[in-house]
# Entry
Amino acid sequence: MEFTAKHIADFLNGIIEGDSNTKVNRISKIEEASEGSLTFLTNPSYTPYIYKTNASIVLVDKDFKAEQPVNNTLIRVDNAYNALAQVLELYNKSKPEKKGISSMAYVSDLAKIGKNCYIGEFSYIGDNVEIGSNVKIYPQTFIGDNVKIGAKSIVYAGVKIYENTLIGKECTLHAGAVLGSDGFGFAIQTDRNYKKIIQTGNVVIEDYVEIGSNTTIDRATIGSTIIKKGVKLDNLIQVGHNVIIGENTVMAAQVGIAGSTKIGKNCMFGGQVGISGHLNIGDDVKMAAKSGVGSNIKSGEIIMGSPAIEANNFKKSYVHFRNFEKLVKRIDELEKELKNVKNK
Amino acid sequence: MEFTAKHIADFLNGIIEGDSNTKVNRISKIEEASEGSLTFLTNPSYTPYIYKTNASIVLVDKDFKAEQPVNNTLIRVDNAYNALAQVLELYNKSKPEKKGISSMAYVSDLAKIGKNCYIGEFSYIGDNVEIGSNVKIYPQTFIGDNVKIGAKSIVYAGVKIYENTLIGKECTLHAGAVLGSDGFGFAIQTDRNYKKIIQTGNVVIEDYVEIGSNTTIDRATIGSTIIKKGVKLDNLIQVGHNVIIGENTVMAAQVGIAGSTKIGKNCMFGGQVGISGHLNIGDDVKMAAKSGVGSNIKSGEIIMGSPAIEANNFKKSYVHFRNFEKLVKRIDELEKELKNVKNK
Amino acid sequence: MEFTAKHIADFLNGIIEGDSNTKVNRISKIEEASEGSLTFLTNPSYTPYIYKTNASIVLVDKDFKAEQPVNNTLIRVDNAYNALAQVLELYNKSKPEKKGISSMAYVSDLAKIGKNCYIGEFSYIGDNVEIGSNVKIYPQTFIGDNVKIGAKSIVYAGVKIYENTLIGKECTLHAGAVLGSDGFGFAIQTDRNYKKIIQTGNVVIEDYVEIGSNTTIDRATIGSTIIKKGVKLDNLIQVGHNVIIGENTVMAAQVGIAGSTKIGKNCMFGGQVGISGHLNIGDDVKMAAKSGVGSNIKSGEIIMGSPAIEANNFKKSYVHFRNFEKLVKRIDELEKELKNVKNK
# Structure
């Protein structure tokens, strides 16, 4: 994976300033780049680095004006940020591609595998599984009976998918994620024991969904737990049984959502947010990290705190909380002075 | 898995109203049911759905009175909720059962496997392991040396059980759970490095315990981390070394319990609760979601907040916190008025 | 693994009081010890137990004076606590050692494996992997292409290491940990979809690092996510892309650190702490459990709460929060009295 300045400039429709034969073999941040690095200047506050970086090639905006001599080969492009994204894609595509069905995997005779799939070593593909074309299944994954996985999806090492789970196309499931484990449902008995409520539902993941490492999504008690199109879930998130998450909602790591809660589309949740069960969360809701949500939230609200309230109110109240000591002294003082006034 | 109304009514001792040959092949919620669904009316607020559902069969209480025409086959039973639970069990038992020891598993010659067990592909069963009868071990699980697992327990895909762990009968361990990893014990050295304290203990799981996906339970430093009879732990929970959890205590997802804390029986903890180490938590304690517990808690208490206090007190204080801005204005006003009074 | 009092006393340079042939086969806490146990008295508050324990051997400090008859064999040592640590190490070394490369593992022809390594069943070792000498890789681990692992490191069952990750020597990675999964980076599009930002960086783990079960560490977008020498991470921790954690910093379970945050050395974080992205946390910072950190923190600070503030201030404010009801009554009373004064 080595590219010349000429190769990159041709790909990006850029203009070379310097040696068009300069070679790079990796992409680096400008403050960390060394010889052999391709780097980029997309944020003006990093401009000073361009005069001292050892990077071999720097992507810059067309109108960049050097105020000191620059020793690297520059490639001028319309928009350095977009050019970087294109280069990252190029880099990604140049990686050797995993292919073929390993003889060390177990694939049920009753499974249907699409064209051009990768199934890695020690993976288990159960009965009646249907896998679309160009799907990549890394080693040590478990695909239970009747699971369907759409075309071009990637299932990384050690993902565990229980039976009957349905997964759309172009989804990415990261290592250790668990889809379809039993919902947490128990009925208390007269002797204080709990009896398990059988969980007969499944998990449905629509297209273009990304699910982080070691995230867990429980099957529905009856019906489906549904993760809609374009949802992005970070690592170590818990999604309870019968939860529905609307399109293009994104959640940072360690969020937890209790059973039967419905979440709208285009929401953004910070890390470690917790949401109780059986709630309705609207569209376009933003939750600050660590919010604890115990009631329904209307579309468009921005909330914070635990229990979560409107974010601006929380911030105002919290300023007073920080100064609580002073405030109590003011009250002490008021009482003293009022006593004096009364005793006059 | 197809059942007729007659089959179900016979099983439930119910009375058919409609066509006894009506067939169903799945269980659905009344608001989502379609042709081929068996559904149920257990909550009166869902009654309007019975007049428009396309479900083929509806379970209803004996004394249900239709106020509009019903187009489905009804099965009248003494108690529709209990009947549903029975049907879910029936459904569960009708699933094809996994059986036999895969030739693609590794089973130590020194392991003892009970009758009628399932051991899935790519599972590892170490030396001196003892597995009771009718145990199901799904693919890709790791059962370390000297582990014992009681009869009828289920170990789902990818569970990792370190050596010397003891597991009772009829336990369910969900995918990705880790039992017996080292406790987090390090002794600080004079140069600020940490030296590992060897963790020689084990984990003991008593009978009827359920452990959620990707939950982690550390081995004791010395002695045992103990999860008592009937405990139910949801997903992504952390149980530190030497913790003891009492009978029939249930915990929602993402709870964390630090080392050497003892928890009583019949407790209920909401999601994302955190409990410090070396504490005593009594019996029948209820903790609201996200409680942060840094001190001992007496039996029967209901707590909330972080640091957690008595739940009703927390709620009262939090109402004032929400209105903090107004309260500070009242204090401002008092100071102004008092000044006026003094200056009169 | 059976030892006599003589064997132990010789090893510890201790003096036997009682039968030098007394045998033990396990280490127990004094309050739980039974016949066959080696136990220890390191904390004076546990002294009463020495007169009733059934332990066969008790380690005591040289100058321990029994005030009642003791029925066990004693071994007197300079420092019972240090002696215990030595015994735990001895116990650990006496465990049967896993060795050899399993024929049921997959090892790429392009991988280089050092001397005296263990590679367990169903593990996958990718192309160009380099593994140092005396490394132990338990069953069902995934080691992606180009990964390097230093000498004497231990990788427990089911760990997943993505390509290009670098791991130092004498590291311990617990079961289910995931290293190198994609950072959570998406660029919002005009139609509210998110486009994945390709994550081309890697994860670098320096020497002597311990990583807990099911902990997840994301690769950098560009460059490296770095865990420096001697860091100890507990279970279920999330480390975002491009995070840097300084030497000898320790974190309790379920901590979450968002992308690009830099953390200094010798820090100590309690459980369930959450830290936002792009922050600078100094050296020697202590964070109480459940702290929520949204701004830079200077070296040496001790913080608490969410949003986190100086710990002592938080505690003072929280005392007032707990008594909020009373405080509001004082304000009510002040208003009433002031009204009376004005109306006089």
